[in-house]
Design a protein that fits this description.
Distance between the termini: 138 Å
CATH superfamily of the largest domain: Cytochrome c-like domain
Bound molecules: heme C
Number of strands: 0
CATH class of the largest domain: Mainly Alpha
Number of helices: 11
Order of helices and strands: HHHHHHHHHHH
Number of domains: 2
Shape: rod-shaped
């Protein structure tokens, strides 16, 4: 009986010892797993009271879900895609101006309608004074191939800019041989800017075989 009791007590001791060792090992194992997480947590400025303490292994596993989700949300930036865009046409030197860009996306068909529409406030339509299928003069210069001439009228001014300027402020440049007073000065009051950009877009489409040897003799004459 004593022996059995002794055996039991030994077994109990062994069991206790085994349980103790098991817990001790699990605590050590848990601590070694938690330690890197704790380092991360402290690195990302999450406040942890005792980072080096081995007595708090049961707490951090809940905290493991927190740190990894924090860093990816703030990290991505959409900026890198912006850089490759400014090189669509490396051959042409001058950059497109705001007016160039606007005219490029406007509606030339609406511009054609507006060009032919009689306006009481001006007492004219554009078409009353300008031919669109010829370079020959009417009351105003013929506008066939105006895109090419417009590009050379004023240095540093693009074709679209020049045509726009010719409409809203025709006196800023007078075509040689024409009366600067003839073209109505109030188109900017009659048409909105976007409508004028439509008209410019339309005039930029007027291309065809030249029907005059020198459409602008005085301007082209070197003498
Ligand atoms: C009453 C006649 C008249 C009307 C209407 C008129 N213009 Fe003119 N336009 C002229 C004359 C004259 C000139 C040349 C004198 C000058 O440059 O100011 C001219 C010049 C121009 C030029 C410059 C041509 C070049 O070769 O450099 C453009 C572009 C133009 N007009 C567009 C228009 C448009 C668009 C309208 C309608 C919104 C219009 N014009 C209405 C008479 C007219």
């Amino acid at each position: 009986m004593i022996n059995r009791g002794g055996e039991r007590s030994v077994l109990h001791q062994m069991l206790r010892c085994g349980i103790f060792v098991f817990f001790a090992l699990s605590i050590v194992a848990c601590g070694s797993m938690v330690e890197p997480v704790m380092r991360e947590a402290t690195a990302t400025s999450v406040s942890v009271d005792e980072p080096d303490d081995s007595a708090t292994p049961t707490m951090p596993p809940t905290a493991t879900t927190m740190p990894p989700t924090q860093t990816p949300t703030t990290a991505p930036t959409a900026m890198p895609t912006l850089e490759p865009s400014p090189s669509p046409e490396p051959t042409s030197a001058p950059a497109l101006s705001p007016i160039d860009r606007l005219v490029a996306v406007r509606d030339p068909f609406n511009g054609a309608i507006l060009f032919g529409t009689f306006q009481d406030a001006a007492n004219y339509s554009c078409a009353n004074c300008h031919l669109t299928d010829s370079e020959k003069a009417n009351l105003g210069p013929g506008l066939l191939n105006i895109k090419d001439r417009a590009a050379t009228r004023v240095e540093g001014v693009t074709a679209a800019e020049y045509i726009y300027q010719s409409i809203v402020d025709s006196k800023s440049y007078t075509v040689e041989g024409f009366d600067p007073e003839l073209m109505p000065q109030n188109w900017a009051e009659i048409y909105s800017d976007l409508e004028i950009f439509d008209i410019v877009a339309y005039l930029m489409t007027l291309e065809g075989r030249s029907d005059i040897d020198d459409p602008d003799p005085v301007a082209e004459d070197a003498d």
